[in-house]
Structures are given as structure tokens and as C-alpha cells.
Write a structure and sequence with these properties.
Blueprint lengths: L4 E4 L2 E4 L7 H6 L4 E4 L12 H10 L3 E4 L9 H13 L4 E4 L4 H12 L4
Parallel strand pairs: 2-5, 3-4, 3-5
Antiparallel strand pairs: 1-2
Length: 114
């Protein structure tokens, strides 16, 4: 399983996870996942539908917010911030390496509070 790196007490990032990881993530205390990796980005990558089904079976909420490399927008960061506020915590966000998820989290930290 991908190693989760906590960026705050309620939020961690990781590289690509697979459906078999979801029960372990739930056992580790995670309550929700955010997938920031578009489907079919690389061969053999699990689809979000497969991850979502495994997440639900493990009692986790799952959100799909695909971010294409080097194409993150302010709208993406705002959507990510809404998910961070609404989802049960702790949350694990992931992409291919964890960088896009980390960048989104950093963008949310710089956003003005509303």
C-alpha cells in the first residue's frame, strides 16, 4: 500500500492506491478518500469506479476530483476546499505520486477564508 504522508492532523496524501488498500485505510482511521488522478492516465491503473466500490464496502466516503498534470485551476482548488470542509476526517487524497494532491492542499491553505 502507498505510504500516507500527513500534511495536517486531518489530511494526508499518497501515491496511487488500489482497491485492496481501502480496508487497511479504514482500519488506519481514514474516513474519506479524494481521487485526484484521472481515469486511464496510465495502463493498469484502477478506475475510480473500482476504488469507489471498495471504499464504500470499507465504510469510506469517496470523491472523484481528477486533476490533469500541470492543469490545476482555481476552480479545482475551490472544489477541493469544499470537499475538505464537507467530508468526514481524516481524509486521504491521492494521485500518481501525491504531488497534485499536495499542491491542491497548499492552494487551499492560501485561499482567503470565507
Amino acid at each position: 500500500m502507498a505510504q500516507a504522508q500527513f500534511l495536517s492532523p486531518e489530511f494526508a496524501v499518497a501515491s496511487q492506491i488500489i482497491p485492496d488498500d481501502l480496508e487497511d485505510l479504514a482500519s488506519d482511521g481514514f474516513k474519506a478518500i479524494i481521487c485526484n488522478r484521472p481515469d486511464n492516465e496510465s495502463p493498469g491503473q484502477p478506475s475510480f469506479a473500482a476504488l469507489e466500490a471498495a471504499a464504500k464496502a470499507a465504510g469510506l466516503e469517496a470523491v472523484y476530483l481528477p486533476i490533469y498534470p500541470n492543469r490545476m485551476s482555481m476552480a479545482d482548488a475551490e472544489a477541493f476546499a469544499r470537499h475538505l470542509a464537507a467530508l468526514p476526517k481524516p481524509i486521504l487524497a491521492f494521485c500518481r505520486t501525491g504531488n497534485r494532491s499536495s499542491t491542491l492542499f497548499a492552494a487551499c491553505a492560501r485561499m482567503p477564508q470565507r
